[in-house]
Specification:
Largest sheet: 5 strands, mixed
Strand content: 25-35%
CATH superfamily of the largest domain: wza like domain
Number of domains: 4
CATH topology of the largest domain: wza like fold
Strand order of the largest sheet: 7-6-10-8-9
Shape: elongated
Number of strands: 17
């Protein structure tokens, strides 16, 4: 019995060595294939993502880690990192140029290259770890400098790492100034949250509007950073270059103007119309060509918020003032408070110029015996 088991083990060992030699796989690659088949990819769960990566828009760069799985009779797996030159190095396959390609395109390129070397396998490529990028933050922030971010971080997150926008309250500034070693003339200047310029490595520019993002949740106003971006936060104008909205809105006041703003943008910054807003009429007061006199532009708000709103959504200019009318007598609450020698003191609703005193006393349960 022992001899039979020994012969079986010897035969199995020879078959295993023959299989390795015939297929070109090493024992390490077979073990990796086993792990790939029965274990999930080693995704770095330390990276908090706001949503799934979109393969159609995510552009690979140096430092991204990929896992390439070959599914067949002898599954195997490779983990590889995009090199500083923008290439992938796959064992037995060679060098693949991936820099500047979207993840979706890289999946296609890798599959095509792998199938030249291997037959009768399925190929999957998975992004398992995001690269870090270096971003420069300049201008009206507390700690200008170069910061490390991930390729899915947004402009607001990198600005927070730079200490945030300047222009905080005086008490907060006094508490921070000694630690940060900043000059008061710079730190006390109020930063613009709407005209943040992003200079990309290819010399193109884009802009971020963090105030609009914080107010409306419009994610397009807070773009994802790219490798080598330079974020410039300018100082905000405090006396000119503003526009205001007053009347029936939830947060009336003056706001920083940004090029391209329309009436609906300003209403959104003011957190929208209040319930008692007159949706039929508004007014825009604008400076004339002499920059001194003003004129009034009437606006029909029902058209501004109609399906064809783009046509009627008036472009605004710096120093415009918008006035939204209130609906007259909207939900006026007529009531009186009864106290003293009645059975049920308290507050009671009445009809203006209709409810009599005797009716009010009756609502309060009548007078007491005392």
């Amino acid at each position: 019995m022992q001899n039979r088991l020994l012969r079986t083990e010897i035969i199995f060992s020879f078959l295993w060595l023959f299989l390795l030699a015939a297929t070109g796989f090493t024992q390490e690659s077979l073990e990796a294939g086993f792990k790939a088949r029965f274990l999930p990819p080693a995704v770095d769960f330390g990276q908090a993502l706001e949503s799934s990566i979109d393969p159609e828009t995510y552009v690979l760069g140096p430092g991204d880690m990929l896992q390439v799985d070959l599914w067949g009779e002898m599954p195997t797996s490779f983990q590889t990192i995009v090199t500083p030159e923008g290439t992938l190095l796959l064992p037995t396959v060679g060098k693949i140029e991936v820099g500047g390609l979207t993840l979706s395109k890289v999946k296609e390129v890798v599959k095509k290259r792998v199938l030249r070397q291997y037959r009768n396998v399925d190929v999957t490529t998975t992004l398992i770890k995001l690269r870090n990028v270096r971003i420069s933050v300049t201008g009206a922030v507390f700690r200008p400098g170069v910061y490390v971010a991930t390729s899915t971080d947004r402009v607001s997150e990198v600005i927070e790492r730079a200490g945030g926008f300047t222009g905080v309250e005086e008490a907060k500034w006094r508490a921070l100034s000694s630690d940060l070693g900043l000059q008061s003339s710079v730190a006390m200047a109020e930063a613009s949250k709407r005209r943040i310029r992003i200079l990309h490595r290819d010399r193109t520019n884009s802009y971020a509007d963090i105030l609009k993002f914080q107010t409306t949740g419009d994610i397009s106003c807070n773009p994802v950073v790219r490798d080598g971006d330079v974020i410039y936060v300018p100082v905000r104008d405090t006396t000119v270059g503003l526009y205001g909205i007053f009347g029936a809105v939830r947060a009336p006041g003056y706001f920083e103007y940004a090029p391209g703003d329309r009436l609906t943008d300003l209403i959104a910054l003011a957190h929208g119309l209040s319930l008692d807003a007159d949706s039929l009429m508004a007014e825009i007061v604008r400076f004339g060509p002499d920059q001194v006199s003003t004129f009034t532009v009437p606006v029909d708000l029902s058209l501004v918020f109609s399906p064809e709103s783009q046509i009627h959504d008036i472009p605004l200019m710096p120093d415009d003032r918008v006035y939204i009318r209130f609906k007259p007598h909207f939900h006026e609450k007529h009531q009186v408070t009864v106290a003293g020698e009645v059975r049920f003191p308290g507050t009671y609703a009445i009809e203006e110029d209709q409810t009599c005193l005797s009716e009010i006393i009756e609502m309060a349960g009548g007078v007491t015996s005392e």
